[in-house]
Each structure stands twice: as C-alpha cells, then as structure tokens.
C-alpha cells in the first residue's frame, strides 16, 4: 500500500491544537490499520491454499490405502473361493504335520493368525468423528466433531495404526516363510494346500482391515484440512472487508482536512475506523 502524504497546504489549514493533531493523525493511523488488515487477509488466504493442498495429499494417501484394502479383500476372497472349490470336489481332512513351531501349526491347522496385541486406543473425540462418518451422519453433525480434533491427535493415531500394521507384517513373515519351506517337504499336498488357503485368506482379511482403519483416518484428516481451508478463506474475506472499511476511513478523514465542517467527516472516519478495528478483532478471536 502506498505511503500516505498529507499536503503542506492542508496541514497549514489545520488548527495547531489537540484537535488538529488528532485530525492530522487519523489518516495515517487508518492507513496503518488498512495495511495490517491487508496483510492478515493475504496471510489467511495463503493458509487456506496450504490447507487445500494438504487435503489433496491426504486424499491421495487415503486412496492408496483404499487400493490396498480392495486388493487384499479380493485376494482373500479368491483364496476362500479356491478353498470352497477344493472342498466341494475332493475330500479334505485336517492336516497332520509334525516338527513345526506352534504358531505355524496353529496357522495351518486352524487358520489362526499370530497375536500382535490389543488395538490402539483412539482418542474419544476422534473416535466420535470416525463413528459419525461410518454411520453416514449428516455433514452438519460430522463437521463440529472433526473441528474439535487436534492435528497432533491425528498424527498419534496414524502412527499407532501404521505401527500395528508393521507389527502384523513382522509377526506373519516368519510364519509365511515356514509355510513355504514345509510346502516343499510335505507329501500330503491336497490337505496342505487347503490349510494354506485357509490361513492365507484370514491373513489377507486381517491386512485389509488394517488398511481400512488407516484409510478411514486419512478420510477424517481430509475433512479436517478442508474445514481449516474454509475457515481461513472466510477469515481472509472478512479481513479484506475490514481493510476496505479502514481505507474508507482514510479517504473520509483526508477529505475532512480540506472541508469546512471537519467534525462531521472526522466522526464518520472515526466510526469507519473503529468498525474496521472492531470487526478485525472479532474475526481474529472468534471466526
């Protein structure tokens, strides 16, 4: 914004008392206020653009997790379909195997997956938002719940879910390797294949649920970022309106220097300036 310079001819016509000092200072003060509000409006718009960009990145990550979820659910379904066909076309008996570790035996004989401990505890506000989305609540009910969740809460929950997925991979890896070794050694091929299909289907289903939990969390984060973007955009618009009011105060107070009835114009300028400042404070604190 250009620097305001009051002509010397106007300064000479202003009375050299307190009233004159106030009258002369008003345009300068309002110029400073208008400049500050313009900076705030620009800053809020930049934050809105950042939040939109962040939401797009988070949506891409959510899409990746949904892709993993669908692929693993499909693989699990294929394993179960193959097992059903095998069981319907030939006799399948419980697998008899010796010399294997207990985890491997449980996986092949009962389709049991390795234990990885309890699921992480989700913060209540975040859990409420997740349940509202899962139950297809209206956006008017979901948005206030998401707005209460802090960004650090999202980060903690994502880290916990990703750690759980990595723990599951680490727990199943040695079992998978042991099953591959046993498959090349066993003579009971038919029953071994049926046992392996049952275990693999259960494993894919468990992995799909882990990806689904992460994807759901990313979806909530996307909504949170979009809400933040909308909030910053609204704040930017309001700060811009405050800047216009402050600029109006500059113009009116400058005219009052050259007018004969300065009190009325200065009062209008003061009212516009006070309105601009009050509106900006309200937006900064409450919007």
Structure description:
By secondary structure, the protein is mostly helical. The protein has one domain (8-286). The chain is 82% helix and 0% strand. It is built from eight helices and no strands. Helix 2 (18-89) packs antiparallel against helix 7 (189-258), helix 2 (18-89) packs parallel to helix 8 (262-286) and helix 3 (102-110) crosses helix 7. It is rod-shaped and about 105 Å long. Mean pLDDT is 84; it is low at 9-14.
Structural class: mainly alpha
Radius of gyration over C-alpha positions, nearest whole angstrom: 34 Å
From N to C, what is the helix and strand string? HHHHHHHH
The count of DSSP E runs of length 2 or more, i.e. the number of strands, is 0
Determine the number of helices (DSSP H or I, runs of at least 4 residues).
8
Query: Whole-Å distance between the termini?
Result: 26 Å
Entry keywords:
287 residues, mainly alpha
Q: What is the strand and helix layout of this fold?
A:
Layout: H1 8-12, H2 18-89, H3 102-110, H4 124-134, H5 139-147, H6 151-183, H7 189-258, H8 262-286
Helix pairs in contact: 2-7, 2-8, 3-6, 3-7, 4-5, 6-7, 7-8
Describe this structure in a few short sentences:
The protein is mainly alpha-helical and 287 residues long.
């Amino acid at each position: 914004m250009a620097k305001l310079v009051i002509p010397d001819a106007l300064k000479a016509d202003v009375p050299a008392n307190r009233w004159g000092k106030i009258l002369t200072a008003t345009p300068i003060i309002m110029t400073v206020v208008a400049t500050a509000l313009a900076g705030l409006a620009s800053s809020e718009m930049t934050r809105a653009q950042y939040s939109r960009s962040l939401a797009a990145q988070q949506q891409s990550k959510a899409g990746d997790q949904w892709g993993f979820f669908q692929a693993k659910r499909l693989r699990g379904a294929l394993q179960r379909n193959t097992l059903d066909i095998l069981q319907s076309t030939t006799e399948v008996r419980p697998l008899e195997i010796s010399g294997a570790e207990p985890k491997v035996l449980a996986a092949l004989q009962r389709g049991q997956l390795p234990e990885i401990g309890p699921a992480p505890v989700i913060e209540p506000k975040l859990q409420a938002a997740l349940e509202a989305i899962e139950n297809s609540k209206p956006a008017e009910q979901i948005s206030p719940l998401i707005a209460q969740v802090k960004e650090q809460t999202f980060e903690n929950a994502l880290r916990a879910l990703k750690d759980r997925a990595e723990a599951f991979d680490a727990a199943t890896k040695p079992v998978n390797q042991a099953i591959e070794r046993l498959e090349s050694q066993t003579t009971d091929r038919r029953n071994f294949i049926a046992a392996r299909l049952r275990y693999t289907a259960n494993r894919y289903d468990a992995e799909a649920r882990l990806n689904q939990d992460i994807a759901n969390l990313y979806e909530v984060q996307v909504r949170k970022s979009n809400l933040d973007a909308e909030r910053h955009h609204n704040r930017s618009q309001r700060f811009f309106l405050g800047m216009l009011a402050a600029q109006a105060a500059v113009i009116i107070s400058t005219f009052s220097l050259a007018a004969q009835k300065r009190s009325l114009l200065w009062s209008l300028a003061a009212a516009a300036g006070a309105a601009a400042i009050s509106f900006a404070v309200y937006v900064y604190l409450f919007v």
